[in-house]
Amino acid sequence: MQNLNVGLIGGGFMGKAHSLAYAAMPMFFWPAPALPVRKVIAEANEDLASEAARRFGFEKSTSDWRSIIDDPDIHVVDIATPNHLHAEIAIAAAEAGKHIICEKPLARTGEESKAMYDAVKDKNLVHMVAFNYRRTPAVALAKKYIEEGAIGRILSFRGTYLQDWSADPNSPLSWRFQKSIAGSGALGDIATHVIDMARYLVGEFSAVNAVLSTWIPERPLQSGGADALGTVRGGEGPRGQVDVDDEVMTMIRFANGAVGSVEATRNAYGRNNYITFEIHGTEGSIVFNYERRDELQVCFASDPGDRRGFRTVYTGPAHPYGDGLWPIPALGIGYGETKIIELTTSSRPLQKAAVSARVLPTDTRWPSLTTQSSSPLRRNRGSRFSRSTVDQTGGAAVPPLRPGTGTAEDAQIARDNCQPRRSASLANASVYRKTRAGSGASGSTRQAAVSEQKRRRMPRIHGLR
């Protein structure tokens, strides 16, 4: 099992979440795809960086994120900064041959996103964007039911993400309300999660029609650099302009003919982290509410008339990711677990890169993820899987969105290896790499069985979008 040296840039809310996931992933999913080493963390100044390193368990700290890029010992650059820094850091990391994890939204604009994609697309680097809510076991279970045909052909999707942390006009003007830093408001901050779920569960969009509104045009200027997320009030001091959206409502037509809607706002009093979707099909319906994230409500048309209605399935060991989580259904899945799962699903390709690190000089850039023949992993054959996607729950392959080289054999291999479907969001490019496990000598029947078991446990790559 290989170590992966992580350089984390950003020690705020998301820095805490990512640090937790790095520390806890091997505790939940063992044998772990790889062992993350919290090597160095970067913050805005030396005091903040030193404090973050002590708090989050990093070996070193720095106030210059470029030193992480230049460090030959760092394998993975994790970007957990405000949005305006994503593109510069990611492009620099790609040019240095580093693997990249980037928080959502990927960038402020489609142009920035494309530049990030162009920087990595030909380098065979592992790269992903962090959409953790799709990793909630109940959401993955919904995907499983859909791919099994349990609700038939999908007719409609209705999704929401409602919060109230900025409903008070005296909530301070954090960077999330400034277009030059955030790029957008509720659309990029929270609607992207629901858009990701819609594409994950239903499919690609063919048309959208949206309305964006800004309800509070000015807010008190924030004191200090930390993003308070509505936990403090700005009082009667100077105020600054809000130039992003507070609310977005979108109608959707999917490429497969289904219709849908997405609504997101940070001005809904009484709603805390209300992420929901309701999906109707020709043979049933599925309902999910993240505030009750251990539960998935289902109704199947095949139920007898006197028993038809929504029932609640409580996720546990029998459901997606259950073998690595808690031993009793409804024991409790939290935000931290979704981040742990997210890291686990992206770690196998990073493991392959780390295995390569054993035989490459420390200053060698990463031209390929293909493992050496002496690796304990099976040797890759390195075929591209186009943009066809297979869910980690073992469902059928989704047809490619454009011609590619994926085959039925590829799809079966991907199912066997629990490949998660890709992360996706509006106006952002995507790339998917697929590795296939070849056959290797096992030495004995028992060793072969263990090797096969490990191969099937390790999740596959999902791409930067």
TrEMBL record:
Superkingdom of origin organism: Bacteria
GO molecular-function terms, A-Z: nucleotide binding; oxidoreductase activity
Composition bias, Basic residues: 454-465
Keywords, alphabetical: NAD, Oxidoreductase
Keyword Oxidoreductase on entry: yes
Species the sequence originates in: Arthrobacter nitrophenolicus
Keyword set includes NAD: yes
Protein name per its UniProtKB record: Dehydrogenase
Cleaved signal peptide residues: none
Entry-linked InterPro entries: Gfo/Idh/MocA-like_OxRdtase_N, Gfo/Idh/MocA_oxidrdct_glycsds, GFO_IDH_MocA-like_dom, NAD(P)-bd_dom_sf
Domain annotation GFO/IDH/MocA-like oxidoreductase: ranges: 140-287
Region: Disordered, residue numbers: 365-465
UniProt cross-references to Pfam families, sorted A to Z: GFO_IDH_MocA, GFO_IDH_MocA_C3
